[in-house]
Amino acid sequence: MKKLSQVLIAIALSGLMKAQQDPQYSMYQxxxxxxxxxxxxxxxxxxAVALNRQQWVGFDGAPKTTNLSxxxxxxxxxxxxxxxxxxxxxxxxxTMGVYGNVAYILKINNTLKLSFGLNGGxxxxxxxxxxxxxxxxxxxxxxxxxxxxxxxxxxxxxxLRSKAFFLGLSATHINSPELYSYESTASGKxxxxxxxxxxxxxxxxxxxxxxxxxxxxxxxxxVQSELGMDFxxxxxxxxKLWIGAFYRNGYGPGALLQFYxxxxxxxxxxxDTGLQDARKLGPSFEAMIGIDFHGSKxxxxxxxxx
Length: 306
Description:
A hairpin with a 3-residue loop joins strand 14 (about 240-250) and strand 15 (about 250-260).
């Protein structure tokens, strides 16, 4: 296995930086429970979604994320329950988390619903610093001994939706767990703390006709003073195919699609790449598959991202 470059040391020690620690997702609008626990039950049926992201393909030690979520409504669709499992590998750091999810769904009127959600779970962090080639005496060697740490993790959010639009507000790592710290006179202080991440998502579906829907969306995410934005322009064709393009500020453009094989089964792909210096990292890909378990009395959902 190749040694990782010094660039990934800064990423691995992101607790020292104002950097995003949560996985990056381009197809968040196809399963918003990955960033907002209030989304549980929002599809009005039992739903399972699996997603895999390969970031910066060809760059040694680049992030690789796998996410599996299952959620659905109960109690006359007044409560949403869910389960999320996520694995994220980046440089010398591997994480595995399992979360239980609950959302209270308030029916404001016949078309508008407001959900309040929480999820909590356990996340295991493994650090394998044998994958990093250090310069002599650059950092105290005892800091980079391999270790495994775990922490309880809590996330919360709100989600407002109708058949035509959605608005989500959420925060991850509300308890901001600190995994480890080390301090010496020779190398200074190193801290790995899971920072709170804030997300805002919004979208609206303009139904041009029964075979064409235009649906722009936006996602804003903030970690301390660092703000990221995704701007999406999507179209839904013949009640079968989503096609979209997006731009991520400070990085570059991307494209995505999702196809409904049946009313129950859908699959999606996305591609993104950086501009200028970020282009050297290589392209990123995502693949997802989702299954909706409709009951005998379930109706086909109107075109939307929910």
